[in-house]
Every structure is written in structure tokens, then in C-alpha cells.
Design a protein that fits this description.
There is one protein chain. With about 300 residues, the protein is mostly helical. It has one domain: Rhodopsin 7-helix transmembrane proteins (Rhopdopsin 7-helix transmembrane proteins, Up-down Bundle), CATH 1.20.1070.10. The protein is about 75% helix and about 5% strand. Helix 1 packs parallel to helix 11, helix 2 runs antiparallel to helix 4 and helix 10 packs antiparallel against helix 11. The radius of gyration is 21 Å and the shape is globular.
């Protein structure tokens, strides 16, 4: 499609998961249940932290933001998917597609940055427990959280603009269940080399730098834990790290497999699988991983009579 015809492309069609009419209803029920579970479990965490003052500590404030992010980035994808499954209307406007892509990248970046901040929180708590309240004062926490949100909102702006300026002459059919970077690049008849390079640069700057900070934090954390004389103390310290590191490995692993590949290696089946993992699996896993064995949340949940 030439640049002059580009304005005629006002809608994309989204493939989804299945074109079989018999599967639309079961898939709708499954995804609705998953989405409600994600929203309810993460809202429970947010409500607990907001309502109970003994949870007003840096660790729980960061966890509250993580739950908000999980709700938001899941909500950029799942409601539209549910609507497509229910109505079988799989069209999305040109503007709507790029708005969805922008906010999805925003919330993914926010989770990446926040996981790094949470690793720093664990590093200070374990390596410098006596200076914890000083190094992570309310003012410092506010700066960190503000930095996470501002950085996340700014990061995908140029990326979204660059992709939206492409000519989509190959097709208007997105072989995915939402508007993501790789499927859109596949539809373009322009040379996307520089956009792919820009993707890698952003990945290195945001994702790899955050992962490096997390890795460095855990090197010092493990070193400090090994110096703890009490076996109970070591076990307790390790337990606080395992939950965070599990989420980090799943999140970073799926994102790396999805985005750090050239377009020639694009596979719609693999992309849908990896995207589904961090759209659905991670927001479902975060609440139980962070709360089920947490004594502070156990007290709160007993008052809520959740178990």
C-alpha cells in the first residue's frame, strides 16, 4: 500500500485464538473466569495494603503498584478479546490498535522497572536492615514509584509513532489476539530494519538494565544470606527472595522469547503462547506467590474471612 493509500486503512482484523463457532463460548467462559480472578485477587491485595496501616511499608507499597499494573495491562487486552469472542466481531480501528499497543507496552515497561525497584528493596532490607527506613524513606519511595510511571509512559512514545507511520500494504489481518509489535511489523511493506533495531535498543536500555540491577541485587543478597549464622534466618531470607525471583524469571523469559527475535523468525503460534503467558499467567501467579505464605497478609485475609 502506498503512502497515499495508507489513510484508507481504518481498521484491522484480529485473528484471536480460534475461528470455530463451537469454541467461542467455551473460550469466552475460560477467559472471563481468568480475567475476573486476576482482577479480584489483585484488587484484594490493593485493598488490603490501602486499608491496613501495618502494611504501609515500602515492600507492600511496591507490591500494591505491581497489582495495579497487573490489572491495567491485563485490562488492555482481555476485555477486547472477550468482546471478540462474544460478538465474533474481530475488527479494531487503526487508532484503537495503536492505543492498545501503546498502553500495553507502557504497563509492561512499568512492571519491568518496578520489579527492579522491588529487587532493590529486598537488597536494602537484607544487606542494610538497620538503614532500611533511611534508604527507603517515604520520600524515596515516592520518587522511585514516580520514576517508574513517568519512564513507562515516555518509553513507548517514539516506538508507537514509528510503527503507526508505516504503510500496511501486505494485509490488514493481525495474526495475533491483540495489537502487538511483531504482528504489525509483519504487515508492513516498508523496511522495518530500523524499527527492529530501535526495539532492541529499548530492550537493552529498559529491560536488560533493569535485569542487570536485579541480578546485581541478588548477588549481594545471596552473599549476605550465606553469612547469616542462623539456619532459620537464612531460610526466612531466602523465602522472601524466591517469590520475587520466580516472577522475574517467568516475566523476563517470556518477554525475551517474544521480542528478541528478528522478524524472519516470527511464529504466530509461539508469539500467542508467550504473549498469553505474561498477559494471563503472571498476573494470576503474582498474588498467591507474594501473599499465601506472608504472615502479614494471613492476618488480613483472616479478617476478610478469605480463608
Amino acid at each position: 500500500m502506498s503512502s497515499g493509500n495508507k489513510s484508507n486503512l481504518i481498521k484491522f482484523t484480529v485473528d484471536g485464538f480460534s475461528n470455530s463457532p463451537d469454541l467461542q463460548c467455551p473460550l469466552f467462559i475460560i477467559f472471563l473466569f481468568i480475567y475476573l480472578t486476576i482482577v479480584f485477587s489483585n484488587l484484594t491485595i490493593v485493598a488490603s495494603i490501602v486499608l491496613y496501616t501495618h502494611l504501609h511499608t515500602p515492600m507492600y507499597i511496591f507490591l500494591c503498584n505491581l497489582s495495579v499494573i497487573d490489572i491495567l495491562y491485563t485490562s488492555t487486552i482481555i476485555p477486547n478479546l472477550l468482546n471478540m469472542l462474544l460478538t465474533r466481531y474481530k475488527m479494531i480501528s487503526f487508532a484503537g490498535c495503536f492505543i492498545q499497543m501503546y498502553f500495553f507496552i507502557v504497563f509492561v515497561c512499568a512492571e519491568v522497572l518496578l520489579l527492579a525497584v522491588m529487587a532493590y528493596d529486598r537488597y536494602v532490607a537484607i544487606c542494610y536492615p538497620l538503614h532500611y527506613s533511611l534508604l527507603l524513606s517515604p520520600k524515596t519511595c515516592t520518587y522511585l514509584i514516580t520514576g517508574v510511571w513517568i519512564g513507562s509512559l515516555l518509553d513507548p512514545v517514539l516506538h508507537t509513532v514509528f510503527i503507526s507511520k508505516l504503510s500496511f500494504c501486505s494485509s490488514n489481518h493481525i495474526d495475533h489476539f491483540f495489537c502487538d509489535v511483531s504482528p504489525l511489523l509483519k504487515l508492513s511493506c516498508n523496511d522495518t530494519y530500523y524499527i527492529e533495531m530501535w526495539t532492541y535498543i529499548l530492550f537493552i536500555v529498559v529491560v536488560m538494565s533493569s535485569f542487570t540491577l536485579i541480578l546485581a541485587s541478588y548477588v549481594f543478597i545471596i552473599s549476605s544470606i550465606l553469612n547469616i549464622q542462623s539456619e532459620t534466618g537464612r531460610s526466612k531470607a531466602f523465602s522472601t527472595c524466591i517469590s520475587h525471583m520466580t516472577c522475574v524469571l517467568i516475566f523476563y523469559g517470556t518477554m525475551t522469547c517474544l521480542y528478541m527475535r528478528p522478524r524472519s523468525m516470527y511464529s504466530s503460534g509461539q508469539d500467542k503462547f508467550f504473549a498469553l503467558l505474561y498477559v494471563i499467567l503472571i498476573p494470576m501467579l503474582n498474588p498467591p506467590i507474594y501473599t499465601l505464605k506472608n504472615k502479614d497478609f494471613s492476618k488480613v485475609f483472616k479478617q476478610f474471612k478469605l480463608y
